[in-house]
Amino acid sequence: MTASLPDNEVERLRVLQFYRVLDTATEKTFDDLTSLAAAICEAPISLLSLVDESRQWFKSRVGLDVQQTPRDLAFCAHAILGDDDFVVPDAREDARFATNPLVTSAPSIRFYAGMPLTVMKGVRLGTLCVIDRKPRTLSATQTQSLRTLRDIVVTHLELRRASLDMTDLQRLLPICAWCRQIRTKDATWMPLHDYVSQTALVTHGMCPTCAAGMFGPGR
Q: Where are the alpha helices (DSSP H) in the chain?
């Protein structure tokens, strides 16, 4: 059964792109966390999965050779529909997955436990998950440990994004002294707000001074 789309799917995909992590090289920090998840949960497969528009792509993986799978087959596409742990004790006994090719053939998924990677405004980018080829459950300690590792993954995704944003903002130095446009890497010029909107995740708010000028004091 193909998972439905999250209500905020358009925003979710936009935010996923701002993290600039899809199709990037492996990183030791994330590989260490997926390895630890597999070890703690005694699972042969552990994945850091990001759910893109038509695929799930693995930033880090243990026990699985493929880099991505179609989204319509992804357990993680179901997991991102809520904030709670998503656990499937036996996929062959679950109507949503019993005929899924990932269950009926390699990698022969029977057990799945995924923890959604929730970032700003409740946007869920993907999961940290563990998979087994036999029906089972996690102990309370394993479940809590997987949640903790998930939180660490989210923290590192935020730090990674912040570092990239800072690097981009440092490129604002080539600025026209007269019109304040920014010179880009390809030597073209664009207004500051256009440049920032393309290179960094920003919120649209109003500072107190501008708010007072537009709406009056105390508004």
A: 9-18, 28-41, 75-79, 101-104, 140-170, 192-199, 208-215
